[in-house]
Write a structure and sequence with these properties.
The complex is a heterotrimer of chains A (208), B (328) and C (431).
Chain A: H1 3-8, E1 26-32, H2 34-52, E2 58-63, H3 66-82, E3 87-91, E4 122-130, H4 134-146, E5 151-159, E6 171-175, E7 183-187, H5 189-192, E8 196-201, H6 202-207
Parallel strand pairs in A: 2-3, 2-4, 4-5, 5-6
Antiparallel strand pairs in A: 1-8, 7-8
Helix pairs in contact in A: 2-3
Chain B: H1 9-13, H2 30-44, E1 61-66, H3 72-83, E2 87-92, H4 96-99, H5 104-113, E3 118-123, H6 128-135, E4 139-145, H7 151-165, E5 173-176, H8 183-194, E6 199-202, E7 218-220, H9 223-228, E8 232-235, H10 251-258, H11 262-265, E9 273-275, H12 288-291, H13 298-319
Parallel strand pairs in B: 1-2, 1-3, 3-4, 5-6, 5-8, 6-7, 8-9
Helix pairs in contact in B: 2-7, 2-13, 3-13, 7-8, 7-13
Chain C: E1 11-14, E2 17-20, E3 25-28, E4 30-34, E5 37-42, E6 52-55, E7 60-63, E8 65-70, H1 83-92, E9 95-100, H2 111-124, E10 128-129, E11 132-133, H3 147-152, E12 157-159, H4 168-177, E13 185-187, E14 200-201, H5 204-209, E15 213-214, H6 216-233, E16 237-239, H7 245-256, E17 261-265, H8 267-271, H9 293-304, E18 310-311, H10 320-323, H11 340-349, H12 356-370, E19 386-396, E20 415-425, E21 428-429
Parallel strand pairs in C: 1-6, 2-7, 8-9, 9-10, 11-12, 12-13, 13-16, 14-15, 16-17, 17-18
Antiparallel strand pairs in C: 1-4, 2-3, 4-5, 7-19, 19-20, 20-21
Classes of the chains: A alpha/beta (208), B alpha/beta (328), C alpha/beta (431).
Chain lengths: 208, 328, 431
């Protein structure tokens, strides 16, 4: 799940796609810095190769926006190790959201870019933050509409807990226990100009 | 991150669609047009899938209310609605039922009582979608009203130009034919000029509306001149059925003077795009050799029509949702 | 309508400013009314016992307005308007006399029909009604009506309004024959083949909206032809609702040549342009159509220099359901009686184009002369037909408050200056 959606879960009304930092919410702590993110991705890359016994018939599918960036990075790490890049695609789950008829206006739809047949492939779905699990549910539905993969695994940079649905990740960069009032934001060079994972404390803001 | 979208994604990152209706391009901002096009680009891929369906409009009811016969626009909207999982109802209303005492607004009130969400309307009289939109709670999409506007046609033309040329801004576009009766021309003029493409219109003076240049276009009656600098040549249908005899002496005269055949195309740029909203009159405004030739993108227009109409349905449906921001 | 003058109590209007250029009055005068007639106009009159007093301080006392051009729809379309509701709207608007057009169902093209209209108007008993008779039988443009019978029955003028009289020979004969009666032939000047299918002025708005245009020349060509026929025949032509600069120029030129021609302009053509149609507003759909701003300014200029003789509303009420249609289908027309005065004050007086004297000339004195109404004006011994107005009052037009059945107005929500306070006809307050 993307950082924007985790902020929305706390009823902060943000324009779709905007990087929104409310004035009252104070940065609580930097959970991961550039090096930590890189190390986590290297480790996940190794785990993926090990678990799938190589990269044969393996494809990475990143969930737009930051999951798609992470999938590209993971592919590079895997290529470094295996000297062979895995197939990579990008998935937009907007049209599969379970809250579409409750949002006004409708969020911006980005292209799904999976230019290969996913049938009989092993897929690794990649996202930045795993939270309620609703984004992953939408992604699974979207993938099933595209074909019949052999297996779908899930890789996330951060798992912050609080699942609404029976979903778990196969590869986790860092498990971060959070309170529901907190907000976790993943920032990446390609989209935000720098690499870091930040946690915001809403209760501090409300006490201020 | 590689992105397949040709339209600068940052331009639409923060754009929002807040209009209940899509009535015409004249009332849209350049950003709103870009958002529609970017959304359509995202939707284009769905029609290439083995399962050409997404659940975005599940539970929504769309009515195709056509007071004028149309196969391609109606079919295109129907496919678009179905690919978004909406339920669609086709009503071919005859204008003659109006003379029996039921007004258009009576028809609309009846549809609203059936709890429809989106009304797609085509009518021979200009302004009918505006009138309905003023009275209806449902979203209204204009599928062509008289000689006024046909916004989804112009959007699919823009999307096709974007796809083939990689840009719209700065392209020279010539619209050739019956400007007086063409809603397609008007919508394209608004769309193209807002996105920065200079437009030249050309046709016989009898088919040129009054003070056309005040719409921000260049007017010429010289077809060779109009073709010479064009990156895109849009041909309009000569609508014999709507015309009085006095407008052009004969179809033969029109073909000889304004029809586009291979000879006339020699005046054009080598990479000119030939577009036509269809249905084409072979041998009148366009020769078969041109319609089926290498410059023609007429069938790409049809394909893009579905994506554009999916985008239109998706965006207006969102604007009329009751709720606030997303909770996930 | 002598003989049924109500024997009401004497009425004294005190403290007002009388503006009546025909009587050469423009200043503080009190007006005493007895037996429906003006008994005295004097700078200072005392109220005696048994006299009702109207305090007119800060108000203008004007000769009653006369509307040469209204559509009361009765007989035939009583759902749009009746002589009764139309008369109420006229009284509300400051008019003491109106001329309803004959395009009813059946058409007022014979003496019996005229008598029916005047009889109904007398029963209603509000404003004086001077019907216009049809020029041709059934308004079909084929055969002239019996002019003598129509005038004997009380017609003020003849017209096929709603339609032009196109046949040039028939127009020639009408202008010739009407000379016997000294009354005008009123022409709705429009060439139907030039304006065929048109619903709006031909210009940038028609092009933008994709609506069929009516060129100004559709009117001007018929005006030019009719003026030639006036020169030929010496008849009296009155041009209804002049809408474009070309017509004004043609009439100006003809008047200089001494032609017997008069004409009218509507308040909406003075106030609005074709831009009022933007958004497909059928309330602004009217024939002749609202035109460009150059035309509008030429009409005001024509009114200032006397080329245009008077202001007439072309009051054309329609039902909501008919106007709530697509632009092509919706009927032409504006319900104008109740907004006319405010629109004129706002457009002409406030904007500095006309003096109060000129406005009174246009709304009251000139139209009364064209309609052939005897004894009009704030002069001792004349019928007490007068209108009290508050020149400073501003108000917002709310069609729901109209007494006319027609709420079709492009002025809904507009803030107007100048309001009719009281309308008095033959000594009785009617609105």
């Amino acid at each position: 799940m993307s950082a924007q959606s985790s902020s929305k879960s706390e009823q902060l009304r943000v324009p779709a796609g905007a990087i929104f930092v409310p004035a009252s919410a104070r940065e609580k702590a930097k959970l991961l810095d550039e090096d930590a993110i890189r190390r986590a991705l290297v480790r996940i890359a190794h785990e993926i190769i090990e678990h799938n016994k190589g990269t044969d018939r393996l494809a990475l599918i990143g969930i737009r926006t930051r999951g798609a960036v992470l999938a590209q990075r993971l592919a590079k790490e895997i290529e470094t190790i295996e000297r062979k890049p895995p197939t990579v695609g990008a998935l937009d789950i907007t049209l599969y959201r379970d809250d579409l008829s409750r949002i006004a206006p409708n969020p911006v739809v980005r292209a799904t870019d999976i230019s290969f047949d996913i049938t009989d492939l092993r897929l690794v779905l990649v996202d930045d933050v795993l939270f309620t699990g609703r984004t992953i549910r939408a992604a699974l539905d979207a993938l099933i509409d595209l074909g019949r993969p052999v297996a779908i695994q899930l890789a996330v940079l951060v798992d912050r807990g609080h699942r609404d649905l029976p979903i778990r990740a196969d590869y986790v960069g860092k498990n971060i226990p959070t309170s529901l009032k907190e907000r976790v934001e993943v920032r990446l060079q390609e989209t935000d100009g720098k690499d870091e994972v930040i946690i915001f404390g809403a209760e501090e803001a409300s006490n201020a | 991150m590689p992105d397949t979208a040709v339209i600068a994604p940052e331009a639409v990152q923060t754009a929002q669609w807040t209009k209940k209706d899509l009535l015409g391009l004249r009332e849209l901002s350049a950003d709103e047009i870009r958002l529609l096009l970017a959304t359509a680009e995202s939707f284009r891929e769905i029609s290439l899938r083995p399962i050409k369906k997404v659940p975005a409009l599940r539970g929504k009811t769309v009515v195709n209310l056509f007071f004028e016969p149309s196969t391609r626009t109606r079919t295109s909207f129907e496919l678009a609605a179905k690919r978004l999982s909406a339920d669609i109802l086709n009503i071919a209303a005859s204008t003659s039922s109006m003379t029996k005492g039921e007004t258009i607004l009576d028809t609309i009130k009846n549809l609203e009582a059936l709890k429809v969400d989106i009304i797609v309307i085509r009518h021979a009289a200009a302004g009918v979608p505006q009138m309905i939109a003023r009275h209806a709670r449902a979203s209204v999409i204009n599928a062509g009203d008289g000689a006024h506007e046909h916004p989804t046609q112009a959007l699919l033309d823009l999307l096709t130009i974007q796809e083939k040329k990689g840009r719209i801004e700065g392209l020279q576009v010539t619209i050739l034919g019956d400007l007086a009766h063409s809603r397609v021309a008007r919508s394209n003029i608004w769309g193209l000029t807002k996105l920065g493409a200079p437009v030249t219109v050309c046709g016989p003076p009898t088919l040129m509306p009054a003070q056309m240049e005040q719409l921000g276009v260049t007017v010429t009656f010289d077809v060779n001149e109009a073709i010479r600098h064009a990156d895109v040549l849009m041909l309009l249908r000569i609508q014999h059925e709507r015309q009085e005899v006095t407008l052009v002496p004969s179809l033969r005269e029109y073909r000889l003077r304004y029809g586009i055949d291979r000879d006339r195309l020699k005046f054009a740029k080598p990479d000119v795009l030939i577009m036509h909203p269809g249905p084409i009159n072979r041998g009148v405004e366009i020769d078969s050799s041109v319609a089926d030739g290498p410059h023609s993108v007429i069938l790409d227009q049809v394909t893009n029509g579905v994506a554009v109409r999916m985008a239109a349905l998706y965006l207006v449906a969102g604007a009329s949702n009751g709720g606030g921001a997303a909770d996930e | 309508m002598a003989g049924e003058r109500p024997m009401s109590k004497p009425l004294l209007i005190v403290g007002g400013t009388v503006v009546d250029p025909a009587a050469k009055r423009d200043g503080r005068f009190d007006v005493l009314i007895e037996d429906g007639l003006i008994a005295d106009v004097h700078p200072s009159l005392k109220a005696l016992d048994g006299v009702d007093v109207i305090d007119a301080k800060g108000k203008l006392v004007l000769p009653g307005f006369v509307d040469l051009h209204v559509h009361f729809r009765q007989p035939g379309r009583e759902d749009k308007e009746t002589i009764e509701t139309g008369s109420q709207a006229a009284a509300r608007g400051g008019f003491t006399a109106v001329c309803p057009m004959p395009n009813t169902d059946p058409v007022v093209d014979h003496g019996g029909a005229v008598e029916w209209v005047t009889h109904e108007a007398r029963r209603v008993g509000l404003v004086d009604v001077h019907p216009i008779g049809a020029l041709t039988k059934g308004q079909h443009g084929q055969e002239l009506t019996d002019f003598g019978e129509l005038f004997d029955a009380g017609c003020a003028a003849l017209s096929d309004d709603g339609k032009p009289l196109i046949n040039p020979l028939l127009m020639r004969r009408a202008l010739e024959y009407s000379k016997v009666f000294g009354r005008p032939v009123i022409q709705h000047a429009e060439d139907p083949s030039l304006s065929a299918g048109g619903v709006i002025h031909e210009g940038v708005v028609s092009t933008t909206l994709g609506l069929r245009g009516i060129p100004a020349e559709s009117e001007a060509t018929i005006v030019a032809r009719d003026l030639a026929l006036v020169a030929l025949t010496g008849g009296w032509l009155h041009v209804a609702h002049v809408s474009c600069a070309e017509s004004v120029e043609l009439i100006r030129h003809a008047k200089r040549q001494g032609a017997h021609v008069t004409c009218e302009v509507t308040p909406h053509h003075l106030a609005l342009t074709h831009e009022a149609v933007e958004g497909f507003r059928t309330e602004a759909k009217v024939n002749p159509p609202l035109r460009g701003d150059d035309d509008r300014l030429a009409l005001i200029e024509g009114l200032k220099d006397g080329t245009i003789d008077c202001i007439a509303t072309d009051h054309a009420p329609h039902t909501d359901w008919e106007k709530d249609a697509d632009f092509d289908t919706a009927p032409f027309g504006i319900s104008g009686l109740e907004t006319a005065f405010g629109v004129c004050v706002t457009t002409l007086i406030e904007a500095g184009h006309l003096s109060w004297g000129q406005l009174v000339q246009s709304l009251s004195i000139n139209p009364s002369r064209i309609a052939g109404i005897n004894g009009h004006g704030l002069v001792k011994g004349q019928p007490a037909n007068l209108t009290l107005v508050d020149p400073k009052a501003t108000w917002i037009v709310d069609p729901k408050q109209f007494v006319s059945k027609g709420t079709n107005t492009p002025f809904a929500g507009a803030r107007l200056s100048g309001r009719v306070v009281k309308t008095i006809r033959q000594g009785t307050v009617i609105g």
